[in-house]
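Onboarding guide, step 5: your first structure request.
Type a short instruction followed by the sequence, for example:

Predict the 3D structure of this protein.
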Amino acid sequence: MKIVMKSLVVALFLSSICLADNPKITQNDLDTLVSNKEWREVIYKAKDIPPSQRSERWNSSVIISLKLMLDELKYNGLIDLKELEFVFLEYPSFLESQEIIPQLKAASLALLQSCHEDNFQNGNEEYCTSFFTTHFNKLPQDSDYLLKAGEYIRRAAGNVASLPFFERSVSINNSSESCTHNGLYTAADGVFRSPTIKKNIILMSKDILFKHCWEYYKDELTEDTIYGKGVYLENVCRALKEKSVKLPKNNKC
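The system replies with structure tokens like these:
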């Protein structure tokens, strides 16, 4: 009996090896799918080829398909978010490829724009914005990309959600173009005017207006001590006093 069981275990083991070495899909199959621009099929089936059999041709098949996918998202907004999430989970290493990152950034901004315009298939603003902050937030980031992302998130999810992106943008580059971006000021100003915002968000707004972009807003913020009111005035006065700024004689601080 023991010999029979042992033989059965060995047979099953050899069978599993055989199956692993002979996947249901081959590289030639992937090549055909790529030539037909059936990127969805490539994305879903390429993972079935065992790692030991993944050659440069396999890498190329996946990269080409990812590019087709991202182009479709960028230009048509036709990617189901679940498909995109599948890519992030199954092919994380490819998302670090310099061949993919520029297209991924462009596609991510198109995704956010589609969220805002509420015409994204099988998605909604809240889920779309959450998806972005979970996945695309891991990309290498530059000031311009963060500024654009912040603006789309502000439109889709409001000032608080967008502020971290704006703050990171001007911490990298506090040029006139970045600091005077209308969406950035709207978000920071709006946070200062809300009585229910958490302290860490208030501090982000303060960093934007009173640290990174101070030169562009100092006159306006100082003048606001005359005409401002409520929680906005409290936040502005507190920040100005911390900077030891000389206030107008008729200020309300």
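Each response can be followed by summary notes, for example: The chain has a mean pLDDT of 80.
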